Structure formats: structure tokens, C-alpha cells
């Protein structure tokens, strides 16, 4: 019996030591990772753009996070789209910035039936400049059957929820929500509330803001799922704010809940390294933290300087 207890104790000790050793290896990998280019999110190993897209096939969804109005991020998005096209894939593009109720206007714009200035006026485009997103919006080749997809919920809807709660919506407004609307998972809510910090004077306000955030995610997921299900011969590339993508708890999580099992969903997180030390960067991309890997792939680059 003593021998068995001793053996069990040694086994547990070995498991604990192995776990600690693995964690240390992961920390070492994070500390020694490069600070520019594309890295695998799980182990921070450098990888080429073409290699990162090897698994993408018809029926896939590729979600790209970005800092809004950052030219280097927009250029990298187009590089991903072009690399997919070079693989012989038909690429449609879904944009966070277009409200799904404005899809007819998007279609008219893409068909050349609505001038760009009139289109932007009708959809009430604000900031940042549309110059940052024109290439992405115009990327899909209409002659191939590719489309530009408006994904997001109307801001009047999310704004009302953020101010007064879900229960304040009229029946007509509730009809704009995705079917079986669901909030984001708990870890996503925790990150969201942490990011809001002092901007939330009360827990109730935090809850309302998170419901609004979840409406954005679930509505985009709903529209993305509907599109890829009806266009299984295409790839859908989604351009969305970085927070929606990080750690999979926002948009990627809701997409996976709304598409058929086995639908490939690939995520890119673009990290602006401007002004960051190597230590800062390592902290941003460390896959051993509380929330795990930031995305399937990380694209690290400093923002372009003004006038560049």
C-alpha cells in the first residue's frame, strides 16, 4: 500500500512538474517571438501569408480584426483577400460598417446605379474616411457572383438598447434582431467590461452596453451564416473591429453557433505595434494568458506614419 501511495504521489508530482515545464516553455516562446509579420496565434511561430491561408477552402469564413482608420491594417486586409483570390477562390466581403437593412443600397452602389457620394450620404457614413474601406468594399468580383455584404445591426437599435435596455424595444425594433438572439459568453463580457473601465458608472449600464455589443456580434454572425450557407462555393472575408475578434469570444463564437458544424472559421488579429516595447508586444500576443490565443493568426506591424 505504501508503495502504491508513493507511486501515486510521484505520478502527481511528475504531472505537476510537466505542466509547469510546459507553461514555462510557452512563456519562453512568447518572450522570444518576433514583433513584426504574421505569427501563429497558438505558439507565435512565424508563418507566411500563403501558409496561413492553406486551410481556407470554399465555404470558409475568414474574420479579420482591425483598428479603424489605420491604413496598414486596411492594406493587409486587401493582401489577405488578394491571396485568397490567387488561390482560385471566389471572395465575397462582409463589412461591419454597413447596416444590413441598407443591403439594397450596397447592391445599387456596387452595380454602378448609385454614385459613391450619394451612397455614402444615404447610409449616413461618418468617420473614419471611406478612403480606408473603398478597396475592401469594391474587392468582390460581381462577374464571379461575389458580393459585398452589409452585416451589422442598425445603430438606432443598438443605441437604444445601450441607453434603455432590450426591454425598451418596440415589436418592430425587436424584429430587427437576429432569430434566437444570444448574448456573448461570460469571458467575453468580462473582457468587455474591463475595457470600458471608468466609463461605466453603474453595473446596469455595463449590462446594457454589453447587450448592445452582443447585438452587433450576433447580427453580423447571423448575416454571415446566412450568406455562406447559401453560397458554399465562395469564401466570405469579414472586416470588423479588433475587439470583436480577439480570443474568439465575440463574433467568431457567434458565427460558429450559427453555421453548420464543420464550417471553417479562421481569425486574424492585426496588432498595431507603434510605440510598443517588445515587452508590451509580448504581453499583447501571449497565448498563455487568461483568455488563451488572441486569434488563429496575428499580423504585427507598426502604423504607417502620416503622409506615408
How would you describe this structure to a colleague?
- The chain is of the alpha/beta class and 308 residues long.
- The protein has 2 domains: 1-32; 36-301, Rossmann fold.
- It is 46% helix and 15% strand.
- It is built from 13 helices and 7 strands.
- The protein has helices at 2-31, 49-52, 71-86, 103-110, 116-122, 134-138, 155-164, 171-174, 186-196, 203-230, 242-245, 251-258, 278-285; strands at 37-40, 61-66, 90-99, 148-152, 234-241, 265-272, 297-301.
- A 7-stranded mixed sheet has the order 1-7-6-2-5-3-4, with helices on both faces.
- Helix 7 (155-164) packs antiparallel against helix 10 (203-230) and helix 10 (203-230) crosses helix 12 (251-258).
- The longest helix is centred in the N-terminal third of the chain and has 30 residues, at 2-31.
- The radius of gyration is 22 Å and the shape is globular.
- The relative contact order is 0.19.
- Residues 1-31 have low confidence and may be disordered.
What's the CATH architecture name of the largest domain? 3-Layer(aba) Sandwich
Please provide the count of β strands: 7
- Number of helical regions: 13
What is the CATH C level class of the largest domain, in words?
Alpha Beta
Relative helix content: 40-55%
Q: Main sheet: which strands, in order across?
A: 1-7-6-2-5-3-4
Series of H and E elements: HEHEHEHHHEHHHHEHHEHE
Distance between the termini: 74 Å
How many separate structural domains?
2
Mean pLDDT over the residues: 89
The class by helix and strand makeup works out as alpha/beta
Shape: globular
**Which residue ranges are poorly predicted, with pLDDT under 50 across at least 5 consecutive positions?**
1-31
**What portion of residues belong to β-strands?**
5-15%
